[in-house]
Amino acid sequence: MLIPFFAMVYLSFVPDSQIFMISNPDFKPQITLDNYKNVFENLPVLKYFVNSLIVATVTTVGQVLISLFAGYAFARMKFRGSNTIFFIILITMMIPPQVNIIPLFWLMSKLHLINTYQALILPGFFGGFGIFLMRQHFLTMSRELEDAAKIDGCNIFQTVVKISMPLAMPAIATLGIFTFVSSWNSFMWPLIATTTESMRTLPLGLAEFRGSFREIILWGQLLACSVICAVPAILVFLIGKKYIISDILKGAVKE
Fold it and tell me: What is the dihedral of CA 68, 69, 70, 73, to 10 degrees?
């Protein structure tokens, strides 16, 4: 699994004329940064990068917050129709996202949001997986700490923020990583929702780079652009992986 990844990184520093000569064991390729330099010269990669960073970051924050409070409500608050609503949310997870493209585009068009950050961000705020993940995590948490917070005068919002949220960091980190990577790598919806180059994200820029040379493909630059696309998602995982631990609540409450 790792061999193609390391090959991509290594070949991104090799000139185009030498990439397909790597198979020769006696050949020693020249290492150069020209591929990365040419990528930034041929495409507005920095603009694509900023767009992707804004969309992925805001989408992640929005979905984590909405899923956090919705999951807490389904786990701790009993209200009429809660099980039915949660069941419908689970059903939405079984629907292929491609099915929602047309109604989602129609909705954004009626709201005059096409080719805006809102069109790229808002649909990512809501997801059945995030609500399901947070609900299941809250169900495994002990109620004693929350009851103690209520006795001390905390309302529901303060209880969630001060007690439940810190204890739910593993689930929050997991959801955040999955959401960021999914939003960062999203291709179909940004392709449909954007109409100008200034609003394109990095995956769209990579596709444009791939098709802009027609029959002539500059593989070195294509690999360099792929590495640039992969680095942020890897960094997010490395930063958040320490929070993805199991049984964080063990010993939090003594019976």
Answer: 120
